[in-house]
Amino acid sequence: MENVLRINVGAENGPVATIEELGAYAGLGGRAMTTTVVCNEVPPNCHPLGPENKLVFSPGLMAGSAAASSGRISVGCKSPLTGTIKESNSGGTGGQFMARLGYAAIIIEGERKTDDLWKIVITKDAVTFEKCNEYRMFSNYPLVAALQEKYGMEPGYVTIGTAGEMLMCNSTICFTDPEGRATRHA
Known about the structure:
Blueprint: E1 3-8, E2 16-21, H1 30-41, E3 55-59, E4 73-78, E5 85-90, H2 94-100, E6 103-109, E7 118-122, E8 127-131, H3 140-151, E9 158-159, H4 161-165, E10 174-176, E11 182-185
Parallel strand pairs: 1-6
Antiparallel strand pairs: 1-2, 3-4, 3-6, 4-5, 7-8, 9-10, 10-11
Protein backbone atom coordinates (compact mmCIF):
# COMPACT_ATOMS: atom_id res chain seq x y z
CA MET A 1 0.00 0.00 0.00
CA GLU A 2 1.95 2.93 -1.28
CA ASN A 3 -0.64 5.60 -2.14
CA VAL A 4 -3.25 7.91 -0.67
CA LEU A 5 -6.36 8.53 -2.74
CA ARG A 6 -7.90 11.94 -2.07
CA ILE A 7 -11.41 12.65 -3.27
CA ASN A 8 -12.45 16.30 -3.26
CA VAL A 9 -16.25 16.32 -3.34
CA GLY A 10 -16.24 20.13 -3.51
CA ALA A 11 -14.75 20.49 -6.98
CA GLU A 12 -16.71 22.73 -9.34
CA ASN A 13 -18.01 20.04 -11.73
CA GLY A 14 -18.31 17.19 -9.26
CA PRO A 15 -15.83 15.07 -7.32
CA VAL A 16 -12.17 14.92 -8.37
CA ALA A 17 -9.65 12.24 -7.40
CA THR A 18 -5.93 12.70 -6.90
CA ILE A 19 -3.40 10.03 -5.99
CA GLU A 20 -0.32 10.91 -3.96
CA GLU A 21 2.52 9.05 -2.33
CA LEU A 22 2.35 8.33 1.39
CA GLY A 23 5.03 10.85 2.34
CA ALA A 24 4.74 11.63 6.06
CA TYR A 25 2.12 8.89 6.43
CA ALA A 26 4.49 6.08 5.39
CA GLY A 27 4.32 3.07 7.72
CA LEU A 28 0.86 3.89 9.00
CA GLY A 29 -2.33 1.92 8.52
CA GLY A 30 -5.69 1.44 10.18
CA ARG A 31 -6.38 3.50 13.28
CA ALA A 32 -2.89 5.04 13.29
CA MET A 33 -3.49 6.37 9.77
CA THR A 34 -7.01 7.68 10.33
CA THR A 35 -6.15 9.40 13.61
CA THR A 36 -2.91 10.92 12.29
CA VAL A 37 -4.60 12.33 9.17
CA VAL A 38 -7.46 13.82 11.20
CA CYS A 39 -5.04 15.22 13.81
CA ASN A 40 -2.77 16.76 11.14
CA GLU A 41 -5.34 17.97 8.62
CA VAL A 42 -8.62 18.74 10.41
CA PRO A 43 -8.88 21.95 12.47
CA PRO A 44 -9.96 21.01 16.00
CA ASN A 45 -12.62 23.73 16.09
CA CYS A 46 -14.27 22.90 12.74
CA HIS A 47 -17.86 21.72 12.55
CA PRO A 48 -17.98 17.91 12.19
CA LEU A 49 -20.37 18.17 9.22
CA GLY A 50 -18.55 21.14 7.69
CA PRO A 51 -16.15 21.35 4.75
CA GLU A 52 -12.97 21.28 6.87
CA ASN A 53 -13.62 17.83 8.31
CA LYS A 54 -12.29 14.79 6.43
CA LEU A 55 -13.51 11.22 6.29
CA VAL A 56 -10.58 8.80 6.24
CA PHE A 57 -10.69 5.11 5.30
CA SER A 58 -7.60 3.01 5.99
CA PRO A 59 -7.04 -0.75 5.92
CA GLY A 60 -4.77 -2.36 8.49
CA LEU A 61 -1.15 -3.00 7.57
CA MET A 62 -1.81 -6.71 6.94
CA ALA A 63 -4.91 -6.15 4.81
CA GLY A 64 -4.73 -7.63 1.35
CA SER A 65 -2.73 -10.59 2.63
CA ALA A 66 -3.87 -14.12 3.44
CA ALA A 67 -3.37 -13.56 7.18
CA ALA A 68 -6.39 -14.47 9.31
CA SER A 69 -8.65 -11.53 10.22
CA SER A 70 -6.44 -9.17 8.23
CA GLY A 71 -9.25 -7.51 6.27
CA ARG A 72 -10.15 -4.92 8.88
CA ILE A 73 -10.70 -1.31 7.87
CA SER A 74 -10.67 1.81 10.03
CA VAL A 75 -12.84 4.84 9.36
CA GLY A 76 -11.98 8.11 11.09
CA CYS A 77 -13.10 11.73 11.20
CA LYS A 78 -14.10 14.43 13.65
CA SER A 79 -17.22 12.85 15.11
CA PRO A 80 -20.60 14.61 14.77
CA LEU A 81 -21.67 12.72 17.88
CA THR A 82 -18.79 13.67 20.22
CA GLY A 83 -16.93 16.53 18.49
CA THR A 84 -13.65 14.66 19.00
CA ILE A 85 -11.50 12.42 16.80
CA LYS A 86 -13.41 9.20 16.26
CA GLU A 87 -12.26 5.97 14.71
CA SER A 88 -14.46 3.00 14.01
CA ASN A 89 -13.41 -0.39 12.76
CA SER A 90 -15.18 -2.85 10.50
CA GLY A 91 -14.73 -6.18 8.81
CA GLY A 92 -16.04 -7.15 5.42
CA THR A 93 -14.36 -6.86 2.05
CA GLY A 94 -13.57 -3.12 1.98
CA GLY A 95 -10.17 -3.34 3.67
CA GLN A 96 -8.98 -6.24 1.52
CA PHE A 97 -10.01 -4.63 -1.76
CA MET A 98 -8.57 -1.25 -0.80
CA ALA A 99 -5.22 -2.77 0.18
CA ARG A 100 -5.01 -4.84 -3.00
CA LEU A 101 -5.56 -1.64 -5.02
CA GLY A 102 -2.52 -0.17 -3.23
CA TYR A 103 -4.28 2.48 -1.13
CA ALA A 104 -3.14 3.01 2.45
CA ALA A 105 -5.87 5.63 2.81
CA ILE A 106 -8.82 7.11 0.98
CA ILE A 107 -9.58 10.62 2.18
CA ILE A 108 -12.93 12.24 1.38
CA GLU A 109 -12.71 16.03 1.72
CA GLY A 110 -14.44 19.25 0.73
CA GLU A 111 -18.11 20.18 0.56
CA ARG A 112 -20.55 19.25 -2.17
CA LYS A 113 -21.68 22.13 -4.37
CA THR A 114 -25.05 20.52 -5.21
CA ASP A 115 -27.43 18.00 -3.69
CA ASP A 116 -26.55 15.39 -6.31
CA LEU A 117 -25.56 11.97 -5.05
CA TRP A 118 -22.34 10.53 -6.47
CA LYS A 119 -21.15 6.97 -6.80
CA ILE A 120 -17.38 6.48 -6.59
CA VAL A 121 -16.12 3.52 -8.62
CA ILE A 122 -12.55 2.49 -7.83
CA THR A 123 -10.82 -0.11 -9.99
CA LYS A 124 -7.18 -1.02 -10.58
CA ASP A 125 -7.25 1.20 -13.68
CA ALA A 126 -9.20 4.29 -12.64
CA VAL A 127 -11.29 6.22 -10.15
CA THR A 128 -14.53 7.43 -11.70
CA PHE A 129 -17.61 9.27 -10.47
CA GLU A 130 -21.19 8.87 -11.60
CA LYS A 131 -24.28 10.76 -10.50
CA CYS A 132 -26.65 8.33 -8.85
CA ASN A 133 -29.70 10.30 -7.76
CA GLU A 134 -31.84 7.27 -8.60
CA TYR A 135 -30.53 5.69 -5.38
CA ARG A 136 -31.69 8.55 -3.14
CA MET A 137 -33.01 7.31 0.22
CA PHE A 138 -32.18 3.65 -0.45
CA SER A 139 -31.30 1.78 2.73
CA ASN A 140 -28.16 -0.37 2.65
CA TYR A 141 -29.64 -3.76 1.67
CA PRO A 142 -31.69 -2.52 -1.33
CA LEU A 143 -28.84 -0.24 -2.42
CA VAL A 144 -26.28 -3.05 -2.42
CA ALA A 145 -28.75 -5.31 -4.27
CA ALA A 146 -29.20 -2.63 -6.96
CA LEU A 147 -25.44 -2.12 -7.28
CA GLN A 148 -24.86 -5.87 -7.49
CA GLU A 149 -27.40 -6.07 -10.28
CA LYS A 150 -25.35 -3.52 -12.22
CA TYR A 151 -21.77 -4.50 -11.26
CA GLY A 152 -22.07 -8.10 -10.05
CA MET A 153 -21.20 -9.90 -6.84
CA GLU A 154 -17.41 -9.68 -7.11
CA PRO A 155 -16.81 -6.03 -6.05
CA GLY A 156 -16.91 -4.86 -2.46
CA TYR A 157 -19.48 -2.15 -1.74
CA VAL A 158 -19.39 0.69 0.78
CA THR A 159 -22.67 2.51 1.43
CA ILE A 160 -24.08 5.00 3.92
CA GLY A 161 -27.81 4.26 3.76
CA THR A 162 -30.57 6.68 4.66
CA ALA A 163 -29.17 7.78 8.04
CA GLY A 164 -25.89 8.85 6.43
CA GLU A 165 -27.70 10.58 3.60
CA MET A 166 -29.72 12.58 6.13
CA LEU A 167 -26.48 13.48 8.01
CA MET A 168 -27.73 11.87 11.20
CA CYS A 169 -25.19 11.76 14.03
CA ASN A 170 -25.77 8.05 14.68
CA SER A 171 -25.29 6.88 11.08
CA THR A 172 -22.91 4.13 10.02
CA ILE A 173 -20.81 3.27 7.00
CA CYS A 174 -21.66 -0.17 5.69
CA PHE A 175 -19.23 -2.64 4.07
CA THR A 176 -20.32 -5.80 2.31
CA ASP A 177 -19.23 -9.11 3.77
CA PRO A 178 -17.55 -11.89 1.73
CA GLU A 179 -21.00 -13.19 0.73
CA GLY A 180 -21.98 -9.77 -0.64
CA ARG A 181 -24.38 -8.83 2.16
CA ALA A 182 -24.52 -5.29 3.59
CA THR A 183 -23.79 -6.45 7.13
CA ARG A 184 -20.51 -4.93 8.38
CA HIS A 185 -20.75 -1.44 9.86
CA ALA A 186 -18.33 1.18 11.11
